[in-house]
Amino acid sequence: MNGKHDVNGTHARPLGIGIIGSGFIAHFHVRSWQAIRGSDIVATQSRTLDRARELAAYAEDLRVGVDVTAYDDIAALVRDERVDAVWVLTPNHTRVEVVRAICDEVASGRARLRGIAVEKPLGRNIAEARQVADLVREAGIPHAYLENQVYAPRLTRARELMWTRGARHSGTPYLARCTEEHSGPHSAWFWDGEAQGGGVLNDLMCHSLEAGRFLLTPPGVAPSQWLRPVSVTATIASLRWGRERYAARLEREFPGVQDYRDTPSEDYANATYTFVNGDDEPVVVEAMTSWGYVGAGMRLSFELLGPEYSMSANSLSGDATVFFSRNLEQASGEDMVEKQNAEQGLMPVIADEPAAYGYTAENTHISGMFARGEQPLESLDSGVEVTELLMAAYYAAETQTVVRFPVDLGDYVPAVARRAWRPRSTSGTPSGTEAGA
Q1: In the chain, what percentage of residues exceed pLDDT 70?
Q2: CATH code at 245?
Q3: Rounded to two decimals, what is the model's pTM?
Q4: Per the domain annotation, does 211 fall within a domain?
């Protein structure tokens, strides 16, 4: 077990972490705890006890928890005396319900928590994101928004260098380009526009947008204090998964998911956000995301431009490259890189994905802040801001207009999330305009 000591040198109990949710992202978070000190996973919860037990066993196998208790009831996990903080890693459409169940236990006095961390995106729309943040705020619990990319070493170190060696002497950065691309999600609910809240824009652009805001903001400052949004233009499209062959594949692999021939979720999205920064200078975030990228695996790329400096990073640069010839029989898997698409040829290897993608630093920082009774800078307020910006991009894409801030989209639900988006319709209606706000 990981441990910590107080100022008198006596042993203090590690912060007890309860994991709510048992899917792909939950396993990623559990893996990150192999490098975290001062906190341990003590409980897991899922809708089925078998899934919760599987995740608990996984945590024990990785030696990031001892006697990890599995629950199928959220209230029971929150009331567990060993649980000090919870990580909410459940599907988007359950987010409000799950957070309400947690906060009800705390507000009633049946449980005490030192922190709650909620996975991205905070909600499927602005109303849900605000509701999640309000519930936690009213319960008086310190909170964190789980946006791993702003903790990724390639971004945090590069930003530090850009601001100390570049911005200090020639002026603040003015353009951030951030992309995330892979060949499609693991689970059925991600493909469901209603359950997920949209398509790739809601799923991945939350990362790219917040990474862009992060790069354009000086260290130690919240983006909302430095960047004032001015406008956004956006495009969404169904490029790959709406084609007959791939829509049929989704139908086979994920029974019950909407028919992507008729009402797909977008598998491509780009948005250009204009802000005014703290120096009253115009700055831009260009964000692009795709579920249609077929390469070695998931590709994350970042650029930052300033008056006399620039940086770039690409996750598929990896830590090493390996080669396997066509004469080898290979089993498919994701042992080299997330969303891996091949096992032969020249392949990149990312040695420690939880560290490379920022999960290790994220969970180290947030659990440490909760243990000290402090409020993380990347809070649920950040999650609300990101959701507001994402919904503005959806609206800009649907109406094919420039959306200017401030704009009130508190009651807006994207057409994709209502299964009303029909970009492949033969009716003559331009793509994205069939259902406005």
Answers
A1: 91
A2: 3.30.360.10
A3: 0.91
A4: yes
